[in-house]
Amino acid sequence: MAEWLKAAVLKTVRGESLSRVRIPLSPPKTASTRCMDNDTRKAGEAVITCISNARKFLEAAKILIDSESFREAYLLTLYAGEEIGKVVLIINYPCYTESEERIKSWKKRFLDHAEKFWFLRNIDEIEQGLIPTDVHEDDKKHKDTRLEICYVDYRQENFVNPREVTKEETVTLYRKIEEKLQNMEERHPTVEDAIQGAKFLKGLRRDLDSAMKMLEEVGFKPKE
Questions:
Q1: Is 65 part of a structural domain of the chain?
Q2: What is the per-residue pLDDT across 154-194, written as a single tens digit (0 to 9) for each?
Q3: What is the pTM of this model?
Q4: Which CATH number does the domain housing residue 121 bear?
Q5: Which of 26, 85, 101, 138 has the largest CB neighbor count within 10 A?
Q6: What three-state secondary structure class fits 129?
Q7: Quick one: DSSP state of residue 94?
């Protein structure tokens, strides 16, 4: 009886004869593929950290707004904006790891405060694969505003106190950054979602590089 049951189970699971269809194994990962996977994983984790950090800044800013500490709230809201602006830079990070020159270019942009505000302003277009205009004067103004309301300065042989900020200025900025952050939280709710975004942009960059190489081979030269 036991042998009969064993035979019946084997017949059910395996069939009377083994299938001759072979499922091919996945190709082994090359060093380049493993490196890209590592880069996208690092980028995905950093994106989630930036979003979380921006949320904490805004929560603290809201408390300060309610207590009418507008200058301090404005500063924290600006910091939240910079963290959101970093998200697109970080998602693009795997596109720049192929050479030292590209990494250097990426790092320069990552450390530039005006660049972060530019990415913040254009984040929707960039994540749709569109290419917006260059850094605008408004992006540089955010950087200057952050400095003038944060520190005691020394200009024209005089010490200058930090500039006060109105409630209207603070609340307007807060609402704008809050909206951007909510959109970002919806787009990248988990590390895996952020990784997929990084992989998409990496593939897009690779396709663009291939297209430019083909154009150069047929003698095409972009306008200066």
A1: yes
A2: 888 899 898 889 999 999 999 999 998 998 899 888 878 77
A3: 0.68
A4: 1.20.120
A5: 85
A6: coil
A7: G
